[in-house]
Known about the structure:
Layout: E1 6-11, E2 32-33, E3 37-38, H1 40-49, E4 54-58, H2 64-70, E5 84-87, H3 103-108, H4 111-117, E6 121-126, E7 129-131, H5 135-144, E8 149-155, E9 165-169, E10 175-180, E11 189-198, H6 199-211, H7 219-229, E12 234-238, E13 243-245, H8 249-258, E14 286-287, E15 292-294, E16 297-298, E17 303-304, E18 307-309, E19 312-313, E20 318-319, E21 324-326, E22 329-330, E23 335-336, E24 341-343, E25 345-347, E26 352-353, E27 358-359, E28 368-370, E29 375-376, H9 378-387
Parallel strand pairs: 1-4, 1-6, 4-5, 8-12, 14-17, 15-18, 16-19, 17-20, 18-21, 19-22, 20-23, 21-24, 22-25, 23-26, 24-27, 25-28, 26-29
Antiparallel strand pairs: 2-3, 6-11, 7-13, 8-11, 9-10, 9-11
Binding site for alpha-D-glucose 1-phosphate: 100, 165, 180-181, 191
Protein name: Glucose-1-phosphate adenylyltransferase
InterPro entries: ADP-Glc_PPase (IPR011831), ADP_Glu_pyroP_CS (IPR005836), GlgC_bac (IPR023049), GlmU/GlgC-like_hexapep (IPR056818), NTP_transferase_dom (IPR005835), Nucleotide-diphossugar_trans (IPR029044), Trimer_LpxA-like_sf (IPR011004)
Amino acid sequence: MRRNECIAMLLAGGEGRRLGVLTKDLAKPAVHFGGKYRIIDFTLSNCIHSGIETVGVLTQYQPLVLNQYLGIGSPWGLDRREGGMHVLPPYVRSKGGTWYKGTANAIYQNIGFIERYDPEHVLIISGDHIYKMNYDLLLEAHKEKRADATIAVITVPWADASRFGILSVDEDSRVVEFAEKPKKPNSNLASMGVYMFSWPVLREALIRDEADKSSSNDFGKDIIPTLLKEQARLFSYRFNGYWKDVGTIESLWQANMDLLDDEPALHLDDRSWRIFSVNPNRPAQYVAPHAKISSSIVNEGCLVDGEVNRSVLFQGVMAAEGSIIEDSVIMPGAAIGRGARVIRAIVGEGAVVGDGCVVGSIDSEEIAVVGSGETISLKAEMQEVEQV
């Protein structure tokens, strides 16, 4: 098997607890986004655009839908005889096996897969971020600095800094300090969870980390701090484009709303950097004569007979006569009944908001959520009132 200069290991086993009912039976990378995509489409598309043709996708939590969606990697051009996309779940070995204990342990358990391709460098990426990034530029910066590891970083608001791994760097972009989700951050330069490693350095670090029984086997908590302590050549790579960690209901909703701006920071119609996805093959949308749609994304197979304002409708959504959908995300196959109102909300796949029901409020700071397959009806609401 020919040697690869760089292969990618895509961590896609996230449980996504902060997305609540949206990830009850679904891995976070498989969550729908932007009217026609799933979150994992972005990192897979970045790989193929960046010339990375060997991608290991590490799955674990609720993998059924995600595995079915990935198939053999055809939509992203990763269905190849050499390299291509490989789904890598945890498995039982001759000496036993365990679930992936952390991000570092997940890569450790797949050292054998990586060594099949004998790479010079290994890119570690996540399947739950929304962004467009040329990883080849990251690799070039990594090689130019003769780095052991290069961490892609982005400047975040100070108020959000404690949610991320935070770096301090010198004038040469070398990392001098790293703290995972610090309570009082010294910097607002945040790790994007995108790491480029020289493979010999990473391999040794993974083996030592696995032998450390006190380790949590995590890149941010263990691998990076240990390399920094050992004075390895750690550098940062600044990314200036759009990047969003959609790990919460609010961030997922906001990232969808960002697409509706007059000048969106994330251009999905950029033909030079298309985001590839599985085509739903649905009939064209139908908009009734008296329906109203403004500043919205409405995908294939939708039937709109109501009012849709600044919202994202995935394929097969039904919006009945007199319904109002505003500042909301309606996922595939959901149905909004006659006279129903959905405002500042996310409605899950296949959910039903019955006739006359109200979900969400323009005055609420929180985003209302209807879980996948859930039914909201006036009868149920009346029963809840009676019980109170």
